[in-house]
Amino acid sequence: MKTLTLAQIYELQGLKSDALEIYKEILKKDPKNSEARAAIHRLSGVRRHFQGVNEKMRDFFVDMDSDAEFAEFERWLSKL
After folding, report:
1. How many CB atoms lie within 10 A of CB 8?
2. Are the CB atoms for 20 and 43 separated by under 8 Å?
3. DSSP 75
4. Contact present, 24 and 37 (Cβ < 8 Å)
5. How far apart are CA 69 and CA 54, in angstroms?
6. Can you give the pLDDT at residue 69?
7. Is 42's pLDDT higher than 60?
8. Vertex 28, ends 45 and 36: CA angle to 5°?
9. E strand or H helix at 58, and its extent?
10. 65 Cβ partners below 8 Å, 6+ apart?
11. pLDDT tier at 47 (50, 70, 90 boundaries)?
12. Residue 53 has pLDDT above 90, yes or no
């Protein structure tokens, strides 16, 4: 069952596309749902703003769990 709560969980986990699809489905069923509408606006804006993001480094950042990985990511950022 696709709910606002599930969409919010997906969003918090970084699964923005999945969350966006759920919000859109909710809005189709309930066009007055202001929370779904705001989430769609927020996520659509993020998607447009960060087009061309380095997906490999984004995934690396999300999955980092050691000081060495953090240092590697910092080095990559400093090169931008």
Report:
1. 15
2. yes
3. H
4. no
5. 16
6. 86
7. yes
8. 45
9. helix 55-63
10. none
11. very low
12. no
Give the span between the Cα atoms of 18 and 21, in whole angstroms.
5
Higher pLDDT, residue 74 or 29: 29
Residue 59: both structure tokens together: 């995934």
Q: Which amino acid is at 31?
A: P
Residue position matching structure tokens 């599930």 = 6
Question: Do the beta carbons of residue 77 and residue 61 sit within 8 Å?
Answer: no
Q: What is d(CA 58, CA 61) in angstroms, rounded to the nearest whole number?
A: 5
In the block, which residue shows the tokens 């069952």? 1
Give the 3-state secondary structure of 5-66.
HHHHHHHHCCCHHHHHHHHHHHHHHCCCCHHHHHHHHHHHHHHHHCCCCCHHHHHHHHHCCC
pLDDT band for position 6 (50/70/90)? very high
